[in-house]
């Protein structure tokens, strides 16, 4: 039990930081997410102290008993990096519009269809698949410039964002509504 006291813990207010809540699919509070680096080790929804203790205890590592077998004095050479400077607004806009026109239907989402990283992304992928729509995706968590740029270009603050024929259609709620009232098939042509 004393090993638990040495583990780092972070408390996040789900309503104050909705992006974090979305990325971890938080649907109830409290929710405990157990991570090691970027790897999800466990999830506990609700105030279940014994489940939380069991999950953390399961993943606590004992101090390493590995003995180094070799030693080197020389540090590895630093990689050669060519800094081309920050991307200009014009270059970013060109790149964003090229991405938006990459395929007839483009979905800018958190994660990918096989591993969505938020509930909204998971739901829009399922919706598009249920409608039989062929689509390409872009993981906005992999490129902060694209993530922040699309919010401005499309005047839409959240993700996922669906683009059809290079034009912004909307997020999950808009697309759901369009499917329900038949407009979505018209947009697809």
UniProtKB/TrEMBL annotation:
Key word Nucleotide-binding present: no
Ranges of residues in domain Glutaredoxin: 105-169
GO biological process: intracellular iron ion homeostasis
UniProt KW keywords: Iron, Iron-sulfur, Metal-binding
A GO molecular-function descriptor: metal ion binding
UniProt cross-references to PROSITE patterns, sorted A to Z: GLUTAREDOXIN_2
Region annotated Disordered, chain positions: 63-87
GO cellular component: cytosol; nucleus
Family annotation (Pfam families): Glutaredoxin
InterPro entries xref list: Glutaredoxin, GRX_PICOT-like, Monothiol_GRX-rel, Thioredoxin-like_sf
Name assigned to this protein: Glutaredoxin domain-containing protein
Species the sequence originates in: Hermanssonia centrifuga
């Amino acid at each position: 039990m004393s090993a638990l006291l040495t583990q780092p813990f972070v408390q996040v207010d789900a309503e104050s930081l909705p992006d974090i809540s979305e990325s971890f699919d938080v649907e109830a509070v409290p929710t405990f997410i157990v991570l090691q680096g970027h790897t999800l080790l466990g999830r506990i929804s609700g105030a279940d102290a014994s489940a939380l203790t069991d999950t953390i205890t399961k993943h606590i590592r004992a101090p390493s008993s590995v003995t180094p077998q070799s030693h080197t004095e020389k540090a590895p050479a630093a990689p050669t990096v060519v800094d081309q400077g920050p991307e200009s607004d014009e270059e970013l806009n060109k790149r964003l519009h090229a991405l938006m026109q990459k395929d007839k239907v483009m979905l800018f989402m958190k994660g990918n269809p096989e591993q969505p990283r938020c509930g909204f992304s998971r739901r829009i992928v399922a919706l598009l698949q249920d409608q039989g729509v062929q689509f390409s995706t872009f993981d906005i968590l992999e490129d902060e410039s694209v993530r922040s740029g699309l919010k401005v270009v499309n005047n839409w603050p959240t993700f996922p964002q669906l683009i059809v024929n290079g034009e912004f259609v909307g997020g999950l709620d808009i697309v759901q509504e369009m499917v329900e009232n038949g407009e979505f098939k018209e947009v697809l042509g």
